[in-house]
Design goal:
Elements: H1 4-12, H2 16-29, H3 37-44, H4 48-60, E1 64-66, E2 73-75, H5 78-85, H6 87-107, E3 111-117, E4 120-127, E5 142-143, H7 149-156, H8 160-169, H9 182-195, E6 198-201, E7 208-216, E8 222-231, H10 242-256
Antiparallel strand pairs: 1-2, 3-4, 3-8, 4-5, 6-7, 7-8
Helix pairs in contact: 2-4, 3-4, 6-10, 7-9
């Protein structure tokens, strides 16, 4: 719960113009086809003149683009480009890709790297299995904080305060199972942290075993989760088994730990 002190600080440091610009960006982020100025005005409940001025500045700074017809506004790729320059994530992605590629070749399985993002998990790197079969999750996909190995691993390796903040921000994604009771979730996270990894049947797909390990930062908190959706072969090909795959994934995670 936000305290009165927090609320008064918010009021003291208000920047209405900045808030207005951020509101427009957040609104357009939810609209794949963009919105007209009138639709933006209606959605935000503001006057046409102030929306017009702010839109023109966002277009001039290339955060928003105007359609060829000039009647619709949508986000440009500038925010995406800026996010890729963010040092911790950029460093993580650049270092993770070759390590993940080596893992997929050795394990003959796909893997992906997820980071915490606005209450759930966003997949920032995905490397497919080098063989003709495997399960892949596309880069950019969002998976549940509470219904995936990646999400639970990210939660388990956080300070109690940070974990509470993440849980408060969480919103269920489509298809997510019912949220577990607080005590049951706490027990799951404690067990996961004690083991050092997550390994369980996928909660979305039959026949898949999710293995997830944390990529730890200097303070011991998880910056990301490295996950392999393990698919067991039943033909005569001698691929690494579940235990061998987990050991390979643990080696990859250790190579990417920033401590």
């Amino acid at each position: 719960m936000r305290s009165a002190t927090d609320s008064s600080a918010d009021e003291r440091y208000r920047a209405p113009a900045l808030d207005k610009g951020l509101d427009i960006l957040e609104l357009l982020a939810e609209q794949a086809q963009g919105l007209t100025r009138a639709e933006i005005v209606k959605a935000m409940g503001r006057s046409p003149s102030e929306i017009y001025r702010m839109l023109e500045r966002l277009v001039a700074r290339q955060y928003v683009v105007r359609s060829a017809e000039g009647d619709r506004y949508s986000l440009s790729l500038k925010l995406f480009v800026l996010s890729q320059r963010h040092p911790p994530q950029a460093r993580l992605v650049s270092q993770a890709t070759p390590v993940m590629d080596a893992f997929t070749k050795a394990a003959e399985q796909s893997c992906h790297l997820g980071v915490y993002d606005r209450g759930n998990v966003t997949i920032v790197v995905q490397v497919a299995s080098p063989v003709y079969w495997g399960l892949s999750i596309r880069a950019g996909a969002r998976v549940s904080l509470l219904d995936s190995g990646s999400g639970l691993t990210l939660l388990a390796f956080q300070t109690p305060q940070r974990r509470a903040e993440m849980l408060a921000e969480h919103e269920p994604l489509d298809g997510q199972a019912r949220r577990p009771a607080a005590r049951a979730l706490q027990a799951t996270l404690e067990q996961l942290r004690a083991r050092g990894h997550w390994q369980a049947d996928s909660r979305q797909t039959h026949g898949v075993t999710d293995i997830s390990l944390p990529l730890l930062g200097p303070d011991g908190s998880a910056l990301g989760a490295l996950t392999c959706p393990y698919v067991r072969r039943i033909d005569r090909h001698a691929a690494p088994d579940l235990e061998a795959t987990r050991a390979l994934l643990a080696r990859a995670a250790a190579a990417l730990t920033l401590r």
